Amino acid sequence: xxxxxxxxxxxxxxxxxxxxxxxxxxxxxxxxxxxxxxxxxxxxxxxxxxxxxxxxxxxxxxxxxxxxxxxxxxxxxxxxxxxxxxxxxxxxxxxxxxxxxxxxxxxxxxxxxxxxxxxxxxxxxxxxxxxxxxxxxxxxxxxxxxxxxxxxxxxxxxxxxxxxxxxxxxxxxxxxxxxxxxxxxxxxxxxxxxxxxxxxxxxxxxxxxxxxxxxxxxxxxxxxxxxxxxxxxxxxxxxxxxxxxxxxxxxxxxxxxxxxxxxxxxxxxxxxxxxxxxxxxxxxxxxxxxxxxxxxxxxxxxxxxxxxxxxxxxxxxxxxxxxxxxxxxx
Length: 330
Fold this sequence. Notes:
By secondary structure, this protein is of the alpha/beta class. The chain has helices at about 5-10, 25-35, 90-95, 100-110, 120-130, 145-150, 175-190, 190-200, 225-235, 245-250, 255-265, 270-285, 290-300, 305-315, 320-330, and strands at about 15-20, 45-50, 60, 65, 80-85, 115-120, 135, 155, 160-165, 165-170. Strand 1 (about 15-20), helix 2 (about 25-35) and strand 2 form a beta-alpha-beta unit. The longest helix is centred in the last third of the chain and has 19 residues, at about 270-285. The protein starts with a helix and ends with a helix. About 40% of the residues are buried.
């Protein structure tokens, strides 16, 4: 939980989407679509989204159309969040450089405390501006080798959906939606983020630790997946669920199930269950009057002490503090 204007101000949080030449069409439209659906229970708009380009000039997209923006780089000067969509061409991908005016605008925004984000290969633009050196970051797995060659000072992890390490980066295409929902959840809690996800007809939460769908030599057969078992477990978070129970539901040996589970999610079954329990506890704290002890039992932690320990480790605050923050926001 960061101190964030979006959590305290009644004025919509201002987002600037910076499009450069060869911008990816889907990435460009994602912020406006996702953040545009984030509203309070009385339908108050929580974010405004504008698009800018260097000089306010049209730029080409990779989808066969040009982008005619309403703003130049001056939009970034007053933005609370700046988002750089992916690019599929230009100097950011060929030699790791970017327009000096773009780099200066991004650095100035970061220095004054604006939140900086990228979707997919937009991370190349942030890295070229010097904003990712020494940080963990991610991008589309297919561009990992090129990224490492151009930016060896960035700690790249190409196997996750998104990373929030001061500067936020996401993997390819749909992972930008996951990142935007993560930001809404961070700013306004699970209830608002879940409502936005339903409006966008997407899953409300895929944790950043979940593996990207990386190309593998031998595709897995659909019958061997663990998705049905994960859904079964989600319905039983209040119960003790052991690894052998999960494997039995999937009709696999423990060893086979664990291998498939990690391949599909990037996590062990125990890590995944802990994340699901923590997310469920967040929702209960935000939307119910259950005591912290009751939340601990309903979310499957068993004891208040266990809930406090895991909650503090994951979110940096105890459950009661989290509840006060998001009840106030609501």
